[in-house]
Amino acid sequence: MTGTDTVRRRSGRAARLLRGCVIPGVLCALAGGLAAPGQATAAEAAECRLRPDEQHTDWTGRRYTGDLLCEVEPGHIRLQSRSTSPVNGTMLYSPAWFVCWKRGSTYPGTDLWYLTQGDQVVSTPAAKAWGYVPATSVKAPSHPFPGLMECPWT
C-alpha cells in the first residue's frame, strides 16, 4: 500500500453523489443541489445515528459490532489518542463511522477521541489508516455520543 491508497468505501452522501455521476470524479447535478465531500448543510451536520448491526474489523483483527455514523471535519487520523501521536491516515469524506470512544490527551476543547478508519493511508501501512480523531472533529450534538461504546482499553 502506498501513502495515497484509498482504504475503504464511504456510505452516505459522498457515495450517493458518485453513484449519480456518469463519470466518477466529475461534479454532477443531482436533485437537491450540489455538496462537496466534507461539507454538510446545517441539518446534516447535527444528524448522527447509531447503526447497531454494522460490522468492522480493525487492523489487529479485533471485531466491532455497531458504529456511529456522523458528519466529520476532514483531517488527520492518529495512531493513538494523543495529539503527539503519529498521523497514519487522513479522513477525506463525510459522513464517517466510529466504533468507540476513549479519553486521551487534551486536544483544544476536549480529551475525547473516536476510533475509526481513515480514507487514505499516510504512514504505518500495516494499520490501514485505523486510528483516532478528536471529538471536536465529529459533528455530534454531544460527546461522547450516547449509546456508542467506550473503547474497552485504556
Number of strands: 9
Q: Low-confidence parts, pLDDT < 50 over ≥5 residues? A: 9-45
SSE run: HHEEEEEEEEE
Broad structural category: mainly beta
Give the overall form. Answer: globular
First CA to last CA: what distance?
A: 29 Å
Largest sheet: 3 strands, antiparallel
Total domains, how many?
1
Number of helices: 2
Q: How helical, in percent, are the residues?
A: under 10%
Strand residues, percent? 25-35%
* Spatial order of the strands forming the largest sheet: 1-2-5
- The overall pLDDT average reads 80
Gyration radius (Cα, Å) is 15 Å
Structural features, described:
With 154 residues, this protein is mainly beta. It has one domain. It is built from two helices and nine strands; from the N terminus they run ααβββββββββ. It has a three-stranded antiparallel β-sheet with strand order 1-2-5, with no helix packed on it.
Topology:
Blueprint: H1 13-19, H2 42-45, E1 48-57, E2 63-70, E3 75-78, E4 87-91, E5 96-98, E6 100-107, E7 110-117, E8 120-121, E9 130-134
Keywords: Signal
Organism: Streptomyces aurantiacus JA 4570
Protein name: Secreted protein
Short précis:
This is Secreted protein. This protein is mostly beta strands.
List keywords for this structure.
single chain, 154 residues, mainly beta, three-stranded antiparallel β-sheet, 2 helices, Secreted protein, signal
